[in-house]
Amino acid sequence: MQTLRVCVRQGSIPAPFFTTDELTTGENMAIYHLSIKTVKRSTGRSAVAAAAYRSASKLVDDRTGQIYDYTRKQGVVFSEIVISKTAPVELSERNALWDSAEAAETRKNSVTAREYEIALPVELDPAQQKACVHDFNLWLVERFSVGVDMSIHAPHKEGDQRNYHAHILTTTREISGKGFGKKTRELDDKKSGAVIEVRSKWAEIANQHLERAQVEERIDHRSHKSRNIEAAPTFHLGVSANAMERRGIKTDRGNKLRIIKAANQALHLAKLAHHVVKNHVQQAAQKTKDILSAVGATLLKRRHEDVISKKRSQGQNRRDGMER
């Protein structure tokens, strides 16, 4: 008989959805998270300011003359800029890249950058995480011909200490040998095929690196509904709520997440119970079938032996009669 542990490992039943300390310590497996936001002038933001903050650097916005100095910001463990081989070499410098991105836009409500926030697999070490997100950066450049400025951030002091994540700023225009070109409009609609492709590609690249690291866990960009998972989807608490929960202060987001995870756990336990009962019934049915088969075979063998014995007895009686 298979144990529940074996069944979970083989995938015939799902693994538990959360542990007892699920709210502030996170999941015990690789999770999928990729969000896409935009940097809009209409909200008072600039690509130069966003790049300075994400990379903890000092940049000057030539368009406005404003200086953004975030060199004292903590938690940025790695940064890189990736552009195509045909792009002007000067755009490989952060300030030049984002000054050019701002200069390419003339409208007061222009979108000057896109930002992808992705959770890095906790099963990978720092070097493996860098290699993983670097491959994703290369794909973004190749697929959309954009410029990429990526920074890996360490977890917040009061957050889950495994939450290493990357902020990827990309230009909203293609970059060729002549500089900035046409807008990447296909990424404007979050429900477009291009956005789905981006989400799928991150899962694909992350899973390749997990496999390369001999890690069994995998991530999946699809929704619970599309994967036929009955459990309700969960969400990240966020820095503020996480910090409050760690100090023992209940939050609305924390309460909502507790309810969702308790319901998911109840559903999971019900499925476990159903599997155990089903497994026992199947084994009992098979054992009964085996017993009946064995009994039938024994009876058939005995009947065959009786027939042979009877025929032998009849033959012997005929021979005895002839001798008389």
Short overview:
This protein has 324 residues and is of the alpha+beta class. It contains 8 helices and 9 strands.
Written description of the protein model:
The protein folds into two domains: 1-17 and 236-324; 30-230, 2-Layer Sandwich (BirA Bifunctional Protein, domain 2). It is built from eight helices and nine strands. Helix 5 (126-144) runs antiparallel to helix 6. 46% of the residues lie in helices and 15% in strands. The termini are far apart. It has a five-stranded antiparallel beta sheet with strand order 1-5-7-6-4, sandwiched between helices. A two-stranded antiparallel ribbon has the order 2-3. The protein has a two-stranded antiparallel ribbon with strand order 8-9. The relative contact order is 0.12. It is an alpha+beta fold. Strand 2 and strand 3 (67-69) form a beta hairpin.
The ordered H/E elements are HHEHEEEHEHEEEEHHH
- So what's the CATH class of the largest domain? Alpha Beta
Sheet-strand content, in percent, reads 15-25%
Overall helicity: 40-55%
- Oligomer state equals single chain
Topology record:
Elements: H1 4-10, H2 22-25, E1 34-40, H3 47-55, E2 58-60, E3 67-69, E4 76-82, H4 94-103, E5 111-119, H5 126-144, E6 148-153, E7 165-170, E8 173-176, E9 179-183, H6 193-212, H7 239-246, H8 252-323
Antiparallel strand pairs: 1-5, 2-3, 4-6, 5-7, 6-7, 8-9
Helix pairs in contact: 5-6
Give me some keywords for this one.
five-stranded antiparallel sheet; two-stranded antiparallel sheet; 324 residues; alpha+beta; BirA Bifunctional Protein, domain 2; disordered N terminus; 46% helix
